[in-house]
Amino acid sequence: MNQLLAMAPSGEGGSSLMSLVPLILMFAVFYFLLIAPARKKQKSQQEMRNGLKAGDKVITNGGIHGTVVGVSDNVIQLRIADQVKIDISKFAIEALQSPTE
């Protein structure tokens, strides 16, 4: 008789599901605080890079300030001083320079 009681289902199936709730909540918080804003920033950066045109003043990841002279598929030509032009990857552009800078 004791063996039958020991083998009977304990009815704790719900508790294993309840132990997953904190993990799911932590993942949701992680997603909304870290992943979603990073995706939004990445999308806006990509739109900014795709919209570059000659005459735009930009700042590179390395801190170089310059004016866009030419744009091709993945390469941007920047004028960083008089008679000084450099070719850089489009992905090295960090931001457009605001008009007040």
How much helicity do the residues have?
40-55%
What would the average pLDDT be, to the nearest integer? 86
Radius of gyration: 28 Å
Number of contiguous helices: 2
The multimeric state of the shown protein is single chain
Instruction: Find the structural class using helix and strand composition.
Output: alpha+beta
Major sheet: arrangement of strands: 4-3-2-1-5
CATH topology of the largest domain: SH3 type barrels
Can you offer a commentary on this structure?
The model has no long low-confidence stretch (mean pLDDT 86). It is rod-shaped, with a radius of gyration of 28 Å. The chain has helices at residues 2-7, 13-50; strands at 57-60, 65-71, 75-81, 84-89, 93-96. Strands 4-3-2-1-5 form a five-stranded antiparallel β-sheet, covered by helices on one side. With 101 residues, the protein is an alpha+beta fold. It starts with a helix and ends in a 5-residue tail after the last strand. The protein has two domains: 13-50; 53-101, Roll (SH3 type barrels).
